[in-house]
Design brief:
Elements (H helix, E strand, L loop, with lengths): L8 H83 L4 H10 L6 E10 L12 H15 L8 E10 L2 H12 L4 E14 L2 E12 L7 H17 L1
Helix pairs in contact: 2-5
Amino acid sequence: MLNINFVPDDYIQSNESRRTNLMYLVLFVVVMTALGGTFVTIKISQRALDTKEKLVNEKMIKAKEAIKQFEELQTKRKVMIKAALTTAELIEPVQRSVLLASLTNNLPTGVSLLRLNLIQKEPKVTNRSAATNSYQAAQAENATADQSRVPQEKLLDTYIDIEGIAPSDLQVAAYIERLSGSILLENVALVESKEYQIEDATFRRFKLSTMLRKNIHLTKDDVKNIRDKGQESVLNF
């Protein structure tokens, strides 16, 4: 039996063409939708990255400020420590425990200390002859310039008043001789020595004056030896 197609060929081709166009249109819509979704995703990710970048930059700025403040505090701390050490060195060039140990080391047998007083004063200015030659004038000018660069506290003189008792003036003289040979002291002088009665015993109550040497540089061994001798003197007293 023969199949007879009554549909025209033009109609069939037109239908196929519409299907093809519809398929292309659907594919185009799918592709554009995918591209649009990808674009939106990229934009959202970019905004999220921008937000994170801003947060990171803010944290970095805060961190830089904190580091700067910390460095400033460290600098101030170093300056304060240096100033404190310098002040301590200027006010007390030799530790009082070392000085006391040195004074104790040199005590003759039977001699005891009653009082110790330290006073810092500005050095006395002595008047010199105005008639000097050009060389001496240049020397004085250079010395003045050097002193102007030295802190005022460094120029202070440390005076020491010592008061004690001894069996006789012989021990007082021996004590003065020993102090005169000390590396810490200079200008040891007897201020007063008079008879002093303690119960039935007679002693000599004496007063000495001396000065701490300037520009003293004691090593650790010197300090250790002075303190060790001071402890031995206390134990043997």
